Amino acid sequence: MRFPSGRCSNNIRVMKLFWISISIMVILSTLPLSVLADPAQEFKVTIRSKRTALSEVFSEIRRQTGFVVFYSNDLFNDKEKISVNFIEAGLDEVMRNLLRGRPLGYKIAENFIIIIKAIDKKKESKASIVSPAPRVTSIDTIPDKQLKGKVTGKEEDAPLGQVSVENLSDHKGVFTNGKGEFVINAQPGDSIRFSYVGKAPRVIIFKGQSFLSVELNNEEERVLSEVIVTGFQNIDKNKFAGAAAHLKADEIKLQGVADVSRMLEGRAAGVSIQNVSGTFGTAPKIRVRGATSINGDNKPLWVVDGVVLEDIVNISNDQLSSGDPTTLLGSAVAGLNANDIESFDILKDASATALYGARAMNGVVVITTKRGKAGRFSVNYTGNYSTQFKPVYNDYNIMNSAEQMSMLAELERKGILSPNVLDRPNNGVYGKMYDLMNAVDGSFPLENTQESRKAFLTRYAMANTDWFDVLFRNNFVQEHSISISTGTEKSQSYFSTSYYGDNGWTIADRVKRYTLNYRNNYKFNDRLSSGFATVGSVRQQRAPGALARNSNPVEGKFDRDFDINPFSYALNTSRTITPYDKNGNLEYFRRNFAPFNIISELDNNYLDLNLIDLRLQGDVSYKIFKDLKYEFVGAIRYVKSSREHIITEHANMAEAYRAAGTATIKRNNKFLYRDPDDPEAQPVVVLPYGGFYNRTEDMLQNYDFRNSLTYTKVLRDKHNINILAGQQVKYADRQRFSNTGYGYQYDNGGTPFVDYRILKQTIENNFPYYGMSRDYDRFVAFYASGNYTYDLKYNLTGTIRYDGSNRLGQSKKARWLPTWSVAGSWNVEQEAFMQNVPWTDYLTVRASYGLTASMGPATNSSIVLKNINTRRPYLTEVESVINLANLENSDLTWEKLYTTNLGLDAGFFKRRLTMSLDVYQRRSFDLISLIKTSGIGGETPKAANYADMESKGLELLVGGEVIKQKNWGWKVNCTFGYNTTRITNARNNPLIFDLVVAEGGNRQGYPVRSLFSLNYKGLDHRTGKPTFADQTGKVSSDVYLQDDNINYLVHEGPVDPTITGGFSNTFTYKSFSLNIFLTYQAGNRIRLYPAFQTNYSDLDAMPREFLDRWIMPGDEKYTDVPSILDAFTQAQLGGAYPYNNYNYSTQRVAKGDFIRLKTVSLTYNLQSGWFKKAGVNNLLLTAAATNPWLIYADDKLKGQDPEFFNSGGVAQPIQKQVTLSLKVGI
Amino acid sequence: MKKYSIYFLVILLSVGCKKFLEQPPDNRAVLNTPEKVSQLLGTAYPQANYMAFTESISDNVADKGIGGLYRTNIDPYNFKDVSSNQQDSPEFYWNACYAAIAAANQALEVCSKASNPESYAAQKGEALVCRAYAHFMLVTFFSKVFDPATAGSDPGIPYVLKPEKVVFEQYERKTVQYVYEMIEKDLTEGLPLIDDKQYKVPRYHFTRAAAHAFASRFYLFKRQYAKVVEHASKVFPNDNVIAMLRPWNTEYRVLTYNELWARYAKATESANLLLVETPSLWARNYVGVRYGLDATKSNEILLAPNVSGGTWIFRYQLYTGGTNNYFIPKVNEYFVRESVNAEIGWPYVMVPLFTAEEVMFNRAEANVFLNNITNVLGDLNAYASTRIYNYSPALHTITESRIKSFYRTGNAQQGALAAVLDFKRAEFVQEGMRWFDLLRHKVPVVHATVEGPTFTLGANDPMRVFQIPDVAKLAGIAQNPR
C-alpha cells in the first residue's frame, strides 16, 4: 500500500516467414483437364464411316472429345473424302492415320489439334507431339510465320504499350508499341504469353491466324481460389479447415495512415482495434477474438514474411493506454511501409495458428509483402498528402472564460482563492493578481482596490483563450513511396523506399520515417531457389516531454508530474489563462513555484526519439526428390532506439528546482534538497544551473531461423497428402539503458554543471541516476503437420508442436510444452448432389479443436532473486542486498487455451454473394494470476497458474456485389464479431481501486477487464458533496479505495467491446470509385474523464456540467452534479476524497457503443492516351477523409472520444484528416 | 557415414538446445558465492513494524476521544482481531517474518549444498540466527507465552526449515515447546558461527552482540535466567554499560526534535544493536492516533516520581502535537517516493530491534529472579545516571531500601522487578516494547473508552494472542481460539 508523502502530525487521515516456403503446396492440378496427363492417350474416339469429307471427320472428333482441329486450307483440301474405322482409338492413332502420306504433322495442345507442315520425315515418325525443345533445331529449316496483333486493356478500353509478348517456344520476346501493336515470329501451335504490370498474364496458342487481338484484364479479377498464408505454408482455401481471414492490403488501405495495424479496424470479423492513442508509434489495442489471458498480454503475434516480429519493448495491457513515453515504441509494425504490403492473413482458431504453438493463444496476424514478378518491369510512385484538423471547443464540454471566471468568483467567495494561494505550487489568474498586489520589491503594481481588481480580472474573463488554436495546427503530412519491381524467370527483385513526414498536429510533435525494402528471389535451377531481403527503417520523432505516470490509489487518480501533453493541457486548462500578455509577449503563470508558459515549455521540454530497425532475411528451398522439399528461412534483426528527454534550463521542470523565493516556497518546494544529516537546515537549491539531459535507450537483437521438410503427393488423383515437419530457433536479447543527466547547460556550450548534492538527493531518495537491464528470450520448437484431402471434398489436418523456452526460468520441467490441433472440412459443393444447384459456387463446413498457449506474466519456475538497495535514510547505512522477489513455483507452466471452432463458408451466384460464419468456444486455463497464500512460505500473493476463463463468440462476414455491370458497380462488405468472456476461477484479491479505474479490473464471475463503479447515493443535503455506498455498505462520502471489500461495487460491464465490426460500401462508375467505410463497436462501458476534484484552482478548466451543480440545500433533489466545496468544508473532509470517488461512481460511466464513419474515399483512375504517350501506364487519384464523423456515441461522453484514453503524456486522440493520394505506375 | 553424421547432428542439437534454453530470462541473481548469500541475508530480517499493534494493546495508551483512526490502533486497543493486512498489522508482520525465514532458508540451502561449506560458515550462522529470531517473534505474538507447564501442549507456529517450492505447501503448528526447542537449536548452532567482519553495515545484521542480545531476550522468555546474564554480559565489552546506552543526559537533551528524530534509529548510535527497515506508518501515526499517549499516560509513565527520586530527562523531549497528543521524537519516517517527483510512495520506519538498554534490562530482570539484587542495582544505577535530569549519585542512587520504600514492599525481589519494569516502560514508551513485559508477566490490561465501556485483558485472555491470518488455513493452520 502506498501513501502520500509527508508526516501527518495529527488528525490528518492518511489515505492513502518463407518464400514461401513456398511450401507451395504444389498444387498438382487435380482439374479434370489435367495438363500433365497425356490427352492423346486419354481421349478415345470411335468413328466408322465411308467416304466422308475430312472436315466431317474433324467435326466428329470435336463432338466426341471436344478437341477442335485447326489447319490452314493451303495445307490440304478438307473436302477430300476418306474412309475411316476407329474403335476406341486414341487421338494420336486417329491423327496419324488421317494424315498418313501427307507432308503434315500435328500438335495437341490444350483443347486444340493443330495441323502443321511436317518438320522432317524422321521427326514425324518419331513423335507427333512436339515439345518446345526440339523446335530450336528446326528454326532454320522451317521459316517462322510472322504473327501480328494488337493488345488492349479491358478496363482501359485502350491499346496498351510496352506489353511484354513472348513466344514461349523459343523464349524470344518483343514489346508492343504505343498503339499496342506487335509483330513476333511464331509457328502455329506456339504459346504466346502476354504480360503487363497490373494485368493478369495471358497465354494464347497461335493457331496460324494472321492477326491476333488480345485483351488483358486487370489482375484482381483473375483470382479464383484464395490462398491462406500461415507463414509456414500457403494453403488453398478449399483445403483449409481453420478460421482465418485473408485481406488484401490494397482493399483495406487507409490513405495517409502510417501504421498498418490501424487498417485492420472493422475489416476482419472478430478483430477488434481500439485506437487508445493516435500518436505515431503507439499501438492500438488489438484483440483477436477478445481476451484470452487475465494478466498476460492479449496482443496478437505479428509475422512478416514468415518471421515473427518481436516487440522492441514489451508493453503491458495497461501501459498501452498510459501515455508513457515507452508507448512510442509500442507498435511492432510502425516501421513497415504500408505500400510494401501485399496482404494480411489473420489466423484465429487453434488449427490456423497451430504451427505457432505456444505463442499462438492471442491469434496471429501474418503480413505478406510484395515481391518482384517475372517478365514485368514496373515503377510505382505513391504519394499521400494529408492535413489533420485541429480539435475545436464545440466538440467538448468546457466552460468559456466568462463562465469560468464566474466560477472562480464563487471559489473566491468560498474562501478557496484567498491570498493563501500564493503558498501553492500552481496558480493562475488569481494567483497572479495576489502576486502583483504583494510584490516583493515593495512596489505594488496592482492596487488592492475593487476597481483595479475588477479591471485586472476582466481582461482574463474576456480572454476566452482557444488552447486548441494555440497548441494545434492544421499540419501537413506527406508520404512518398517509390517501388521498382522487375524480374525474369530466374530472378526477381523488388525495391522500395519511402518517406513519411508529419510536421506535427500539435506544436510539440513531429515525425519523419524512412523505410527501405529490397527483396530478391533467385531460381538457380528446377530444384534450388533462394531469396534475400533487406528491410530497414529509420524514425525521428519529437514528442512533448513526458514522464511515466504513477498510479495514486491513495486519492484515486493517476499522477503525472510536469504533464505538458498539448491535448490534455487544452482540455484541462482554464480558458481564462492567456498564452500571451497585452504586449504580445509570452505570459507566464506559476507552476511548481516557477514561471510556466505552455508554448515556452513545449519548446524547452521535449522528447527526441530516434530509432533504427534493420532486418536481413533469407530463405533457401531445395527439392530433394520430386515430392520432398527442404526449406530454410532465417532472419536477423537489430533495433536500436534512443529517447532523449531534453529539458533546457528555461524549462519549468528545471526552474522548479530553483524556486526558493520565499521561506514558504522553500518549505513547500519538494524539489529542494533537505540534508538528512542536518534536519534543522533550510532546504537548498541543488540545481543552480542548467536543465536535464535524460536518455533512455532500448535495443533488440533478434534472430530466428527455421528448417523444414515438406512432402507432397497426389495418389490416384484423389488422395492429396501434405506433410510438413520442421524445427525452429529463436533468440532475442533486449537491453534498456536510462540515464539522468543533471545540470546540462544547453545555452552555455553544453557544459554540465553538477552539484554533488543533487546526486546525493537522488540516491538518498533511493533512485539510481542511471540504470540498465537486460532481458533474454530463447525459444526452440519442433513441429509437424499433416494434411490429407480426398477428392477435394474432405480435408483432415493435424498438427503437433513441441516448444521450449527459457522464459519461465531455469527449470527443466516447466520448459517444454506440447501443443496440438485437429481440424476437418467438407467441401459440400463438390458432392454430386450439389451439381444440380448451379447457383452455389462453394459451400464448406469446417470444424477444429486444439490447444494453444502463451507465455504468462511469471518467470519463477526457479527462484527469482534480485538485487535491491535497502531503503534506509542514511547513505552510510544503505547496502546492496538480494531480495527474494519470487519463490520457486515448481508447478509453473504456460497459459493454455482450448478452442473449438465451427465454421461455414459459402459463395453464391458466381461469387456475387459470399459469406463466412464462425462460432467458437474457448476455454483458457492455467492462467497466471496473483493469488493469496498462507504467507508461511514467505511470499503472500504468489503468481501461479490459478485462473480459468471462458469465452464464446460468433463472427460473420458477408460480401456482396449488389450491382455488377460494365460501368456500374456496388460492392458491400460487412463484418460482425461478438465475443464475451467470463473469469470462471481466479483467486486474486483486487482492491476497490483496481476495479474502478478506466482500464477495468479482473474479478471472478465477471468478464475480463470489467469496469466497476462506486454506487452513487445522491448528494449530501447539507454540503452537496457526493455520497456512495462505502466499503462497508454504509452511505458515506468517504470510500477507502484501497479496501479489498468489493461487495458494494456496481458492475458496469466489460471495458473491451463485445461487438465490433465494419461496413464497407464501394460504388464504381466507369473510372470512379467511391468507398464509404463505417466501423462500429458496442457492449463496453467507459469511465468518463475524471473532471471532478476536491479542490479547484484558478488553473483548471471545468466542464459545463458544473453549471447544473448543487448550490444550496434542496438542490440534491434536482441535480447529481456535486457542489464546489468551500474551504471550511474541505478542511472537514478529514482525508476523504469524495470528488475523486465521484469520478469512479456510477454517475461517471458511459456506454462505449459507437458508429464511426471511418473513411470516405473517392478514387479516379485516370486513363488517357496522353499519359500513355508520356509513358505513364496508370494514374490513380484518391481523395479520402479519415475519421470524419462519429455518427453515434453515448450522449454522456459529451465529446470525449469513446476509443481514446485521455491519459496525457504522449497520448493523442486519433485525428480527423483529409488525404489526397496519387498513385502513378510507369 | 551419412547415418553417423545424422546421429552426430541430433546429439549436437539436443545438447545445444539444453544450453540454449538454460539462459535465465533476466539478469536475476544466482547464489553461487558466500558474498551473494550474505547479500540475500540482508533481507532475512522481518521488514514489518510491530510497534503499532503492540503499543496499542499495551497499558501505555489511553482513549483520547479524538484522533487518527486506524484499524492497527483501534482493534488492538479494543482487544479485537486487527482487521487489516496492511502495514503495521499483525498479518503484515506475520508475512514479513515468514518472508525473512524464506530468505534464511534459501541461504541455508545454498550453504548446505555448497562443495566448500566451511567458506559459508558465517553465512550459515547469520541465517540460523535470523531464522530463530523471526520464529521467536512469531511464537511470541501468535502463540501463548512460554510457560513450562503448558508449553508442551500450547499450539506453536509453523517452524519452517526449507524453502517452499510449490504454491500451496502444508504446514503444522506443533507446540510452543517444539518451537522454543527449534529456536534454541538454531540460535546455539548459529551464534558461534557469526563473524562480524563479514558485514558491510553491521548494525543491520546479527552481529555477535546483537545475537547475544537476542539470546538474552529468548532465555528471559524461556526463564533460563543464568543464560540471560551470560549472554547479556557478552554484549557489554568490559561490562561498560553506560558507554553503550543512549546519551540522553548529555547529547540527546540538547537536540531539537528534528535532530532527535534523525538520530534515534541511526546506526551510529552505540545503543542500537540491530536495526531493520520496515514499511510502516507508525512514524506519522504514533503522535495523532486516537488511542495513544495522552496527558494521563505521559504523566503516569514519564512525569510521575520514580524510584531514583529524580526527574526523567524524557520530559525535556516530550512534545505535544495538537491537543492531548504526547510524543517523544524517536520514531522517524523515511519516505521513499514512487518516482523522483511523485507525491506518493512508501513510508518507512527504521526499527531498533535490539538495543543496549533492553539487554541491560534483560540482565537486570534475570538477576532479580536469580536474586542478585546488587547486580540489579548496578544496572539500574548505570541506567539512571544517563536518564535522570541533573543526575547526582548522591541524590539519585537507587538502593534496596529505596526500592522497598518506593514500592512499599518488603520483598526486595518484587520491588526490584517493579523498578526494572517501570524504567523499561519509560525508556521504550511508544516503541511497543511494553507488550513483551506484559506478556511475560501476564499483566492484565485495562482499557477505558470515551464511549463508556471498559475492556479488560485478563492474565490468560485468549485475546493476548494475536490472530493467525485467515489465509493460513490454506496451509492447514488452525487459527487461535477466540
From TrEMBL, chain A:
Q: How does it sit in the membrane?
A: Multi-pass membrane protein
InterPro entries with a match to the protein in the record: Beta-barrel_TonB_sf, CarboxyPept-like_regulatory, Plug_dom, Plug_dom_sf, TonB-dep_OMP_SusC/RagA, TonB-dep_OMP_SusC/RagA_CS, TonB-dep_rcpt-like
Q: Which UniProt keywords apply?
A: Cell outer membrane, Membrane, Transmembrane, Transmembrane beta strand, Transport
**One Pfam family of this chain:** Plug
NCBIfam families in the record: OMP_RagA_SusC (TIGR04056), SusC_RagA_signa (TIGR04057)
Q: Which family does it belong to?
A: Belongs to the TonB-dependent receptor family.
Q: What is this protein called?
A: SusC/RagA family TonB-linked outer membrane protein
List the top taxonomic levels of the source: Bacteria, Pseudomonadati, Bacteroidota, Chitinophagia, Chitinophagales
Automatic annotation (TrEMBL), chain B:
PROSITE patterns xref list: PROKAR_LIPOPROTEIN (PS51257)
Residues in SusD-like N-terminal domain copies: 19-220
Gene3D superfamilies under this entry?
A: 1.25.40.390
Pfam families the record matches: SusD-like_3
Protein name in UniProt:
RagB/SusD family nutrient uptake outer membrane protein
Tell me which species this is from.
Niastella caeni
Taxonomic classification, please?
A: Bacteria, Pseudomonadati, Bacteroidota, Chitinophagia, Chitinophagales
